[in-house]
């Protein structure tokens, strides 16, 4: 692709053709990247297909297309990804928030309604889950933790950008620096088997392995959270975790082994078991 100025429509067509070999959505990728460069909406691109960006803008667009063509995720190229309708800053230090994880948010909101609770998000990354919950339930008190300092800094940035004051964000290796009890604990931990061939394809090649893979066939972190989480839940508190689509049965067994009650798995919009939950047993009466 040359860097000479061309109309929006021509730029998008050429870019989509270049990306067709590596992307499942080449046209969408091109639109998002051009809108980012031009500081316009995608709607503007459709409305003004004959507009000709200046040479500097075209050069910047071509640079992003070249990087996308070798597999860099669109979210890392733009520095932003929408989650639960919230614009979140992203970086290669964290997992890119995915629509599948919105299932976990929806389940948590449904189970607690508008009552005031204390909630914990383990492995928060960009802060996506905690910030979505905080946005929907300003009366909730949330604590979000991540063991990576860069992820904590990014989550703090997103919290401050969104002006969500009911979230405390801390550095912690799972429960290591967490104290007290919670009505709700949520987590989207690493759950991919290190030998999974999908790790060599698509966007995940550029995402941090520490946020993706776990030992024991992808179950190690889930097992730790489930076994330990019961000690941090209030009486009949709720733990909700995201997991792989083929891990539902194994995760339910971990919940049952941990003494949780009313264990159930929830399917995502694609009909795949994506989230499993369980309630801590009630405290004995005084």
Topology:
Layout: H1 8-19, H2 26-38, H3 42-47, H4 55-69, H5 74-78, E1 80-83, E2 86-89, H6 102-112, E3 118-122, H7 128-136, E4 141-146, H8 149-162, E5 167-171, E6 182-187, H9 215-218, H10 220-229, E7 233-242, H11 248-257, E8 261-267, E9 273-279
Parallel strand pairs: 3-4, 3-6, 4-5, 6-7
Antiparallel strand pairs: 1-2, 7-9, 8-9
Helix pairs in contact: 1-2, 1-4, 2-4, 6-7, 10-11
Largest sheet properties: 7 strands, mixed
CATH architecture of the largest domain: 3-Layer(aba) Sandwich
Could you name the CATH homologous superfamily of the largest domain?
Vaccinia Virus protein VP39
* Overall geometry: elongated
Poorly predicted regions are none
List how many beta strands DSSP finds.
9
Count of the domains: 2
Assigned CATH class of the largest domain: Alpha Beta
Order of strands, widest sheet: 5-4-3-6-7-9-8
Helix count equals 11
Determine Rg (CA atoms, Å). 21 Å
Mean pLDDT: 91
Percentage of residues in DSSP E strands: 15-25%
- Give helix % range: 25-40%
Order of secondary-structure elements: HHHHHEEHEHEHEEHHEHEE
CATH topology of the largest domain: Rossmann fold
